[in-house]
Amino acid sequence: MNLKISGGKIVTSKQIYKADIGITRGIISHIQTRLRQPAKETIDASGMLIFPGIIDAHVHLSLPAGGTITNEDFKSGTKAAACGGITTIIDFAAQEKGKTLADAIKSRRAEADGKVAVDYALHVVPTDWNNRTAKEMSKLTSRGFTSFKMYMIYAKAGLMSDDAAIFSALEQTAKYGGIVTVHAESSNVLDMLVERYHNKADMKKHGAYCHALSRPNFIEAEAVSRAVTWAEATGGRLYIVHMSTVEGVEIVRRAKARGVNVYAETCPHYLIFDDSIFKKPDGFLYATAPQVKKQSDRNALWQALAEGVISVVATDNCVFTRKQKNRWRGDFTRIPCGIPGLETMLPILHSYGVKQKRISLNKMVELLAENPAKLFGLYPKKGVLSPGSDADLVIFDPLKKVTLSYKWLQTDCDWSPYEGMKVEGYPVITICRGQVIAQNGRFVGHTGYGKFIHRNGPQDL
Ligand SMILES: [Zn+2]
Q: The domain spanning residue 327 has which CATH number?
């Protein structure tokens, strides 16, 4: 046995119990009360909680967007992830027009391999739909690429999939397995509303709040509803990424009740902020797509997490510095969209979810580890603390009080959406395949340690 973790309380989606964990060659070899066998090293985890390593199923590193590229790459981003208790990330490989999905995977892996400090996988993003793409999708599903992301917006950036493409991709998942994830916003009406507010008078009057004015809730609701219609018609498996509205929640709730194979994800920022943030002097920093909505939406999202209508919390981490965000100069259409999240997701969810009794500790582990592992084919290798699983885990001090600040966070960013916020509970040690990779908010692992993970098909929750 290489490593023993003694005296901690293990948290799973169902239980909380005291046990020691033995790790042998990167795998969990023992879980038992008072493990007596000797180990080369022992970590005393008395008073600590132990979670499965967090899986962030929605991450953008080295992403070109808004005329610039994210400040965080696979190296710095996965270091920050490790400090936040994350041991696996899923980023994206977007197809270029005229090229294959395999080409996209190859070039994305060339960017990530040798740089990642935690394990990683890639969602494949079809952007050039035709018979060849459909065929390739089914082939990839059997080769360990079991999730496909499709954008219902971003026509100008060449990322958008039309309804026929999404319908066909869902048909593929019904036949061959896999899961289609969608960015659900209603493209045509959204573009029209953006143009409507894209004038000097409105931008002078409302500033960054134009971002919220141009994306009312129905922009998301209509697209969620349409995607659900295609999932229901095809019998395919659908996952709505970064859902932000009460309307989306209700559509997914009703679809699930009818037996539609649909799942949803939300992100920490939709649970913490509302759109009054855009009226603050540096509100433009908070621009994401979709944007944060109203207090009533936040409440509905928390409720949906507790009830299992939303199955996953992921970050949609996408880091732009103040200087990059400042490119907007008063024009809301020019703000690079996205905010940091990797390092803060776990403490935020613990403090504002568990501590405030909106979700249980077990539910938090389900949302951050078990469910993403099941839906994205990583379970039971990852997402669970069980003999035979990868020794990916977080030792978490539930009483540690921390004031969040970009000044000490490891994320490569000169601002934090959570600046000055107090959290209770913080990861103290992150272990990936038996190796300690972060300790007390500092990265102690190795660049390039992370492995690319071939995945299985999704499991129903
Ligand atoms: Zn995203």
A: 3.20.20.140
